[in-house]
Amino acid sequence: MQRACVSLLSGGLDSLLATKLMLEQGIRVHGLYLALSWGCCEKPKAMAAAQQLGVPLMVLGVGDAYLDVIRSPKYGYGTQMNPCVDCRIYMFTLAKRYMEEVGAGFLVTGEVLGQRPMSQRRQPLGVIEQDAGLEGRLLRPLSAQLLEPTLPEQEGIVDRSKLLALSGRSRQAQIALAAEHGLTEYSQPAGGCQLTDETFARKAKDLFAHEARPTTKDMELLTMGRHVRLDDGTKVILGRNALENLRLEGYADDERYTLISPVFPGPAALVIGTVQEQWRDQVVHIILQHVKEEKLPEGALEFRCGRQRWTVERSAWQRASAAPELCQI
Ligand code: SF4
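That is the input. Now the predicted structure with iron/sulfur cluster docked in place:
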């Protein structure tokens, strides 16, 4: 087996330390960051960590195929819509392919036994290793002494006595170790990715219930704005500030169009789904329900959608603001 490994660098403390333990044993490390464009975005931290450790870092985007994992996870969901066990199997399978590509002998992660309830108990750790096709080649240096010896340990490539026996949710030992090694480039521990967040999970469930083949772009859109469903095939996303308005406008294409008023400050609305004339007025109503009356100019209001422009009479928008508000997803 090669004295080289691929180490998954997430930007967090655990993966930083796991990588450091490999470097201390003279093992060549290829850093790998797997990016979910709509999930946890710790890429800058992962890059800073790789730089501090002096290891190369490959960044690979996780594509639309990952969405099948979210739709029907073999091992189920955590507290929200997070399929942590299946997610890790998917990620580690990608990492295995990279490992083969660079000629590394094993994969290293910062997982700690008992740290996360769904994916870091003894049994799921084994399932993940097996289903990712990494039997004996998945080394978790921070908990290694509590786990079965892996092939690199058995073959003497990695000295097991220099690995750790950490377990549980406390990070005190890791923080102390990082300080001891002068390691500073890591993010604060987070609860998980967006899929563990209740609001995001609600929007994701709605997306999967209404879209046969959602894309990573659809998932990115769940991270911004207020979402209002008009019918099974149509949804509106309203920007909550000027930056979101700008970002939503960037998502306009053949299947999504943005509606905005150039004459008063208010939300941009990205309409996703079947473009029907009837929705235009409804979307104007939704926009107006999120604008204070004193911010509106006198007289008719102008709106634009792509190259089209049209006006809405004052009496119409007054009726709109009196109508009951549509429920947000
Ligand atoms: S928290 Fe999110 S990114 Fe992390 S394992 Fe679970 S589903 Fe995957």
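The radius of gyration is 25 Å.
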